[in-house]
Amino acid sequence: MASAVSYEYLKSIQGAPNGIPTLDGDGNIPEAQLPSSVVSPFKGQFADEADLLDDYPVAGVADYAYLDDTLSFWYWNAGLVVPAWVNQEIEEADYLLLTNLAKSMVPYLIIPTTVTP
Questions:
Q1: Which of 45, 85, 84 is nearest to 66 (CA)?
Q2: Shared domain check, 22 and 44
Q3: For a FRET experiment, which of 24, 66, 73, 78 has its CA 20 to 30 Å from that of 84?
Q4: Counting beta carbons within 10 angstroms of the beta carbon of residue 47, is it exposed (0 to 12), middle (13 to 18) or buried (19 or more)?
Q5: How many whole angstroms separate alpha carbon 96 and alpha carbon 104?
Q6: In this structure, are 87 and 102 located in the same domain?
Q7: Is 43 exposed, middle or buried (0-12, 13-18, 19+ CB in 10 A)?
Q8: Minimal CA–CA distance to 46: which of 13, 104, 12, 87?
Q9: Which pLDDT tens digit goes with each residue over 77-102?
Q10: What whole-number distance in Å separates Cα of residue 117 and Cα of residue 114?
């Protein structure tokens, strides 16, 4: 039979770094408890931004996903005043309006500015 001290110790290391992982409601180890070397920055393919936000309302540096409705990759940009998912593809005119910090936070694909007659 385990002593109260060992029980308290085991409880104290649950979910802690180098401790014992816990399980979420689906029986999986939460991503936050996995080492970064096993967590892919690619979060998956989503129908649209709403679906992406449902699964990942916040993300980490270098996290990205593919959105079907825009046919483009989106990256998490933590350098914004309000961190958000950002479409990686951006028109040149919009890219030029970004601050240097914003430009450095996402690997943008610059596309020619659409000119309307």
A1: 45
A2: no
A3: 24
A4: exposed
A5: 13
A6: yes
A7: buried
A8: 87
A9: 887 788 899 888 888 888 889 888 87
A10: 10
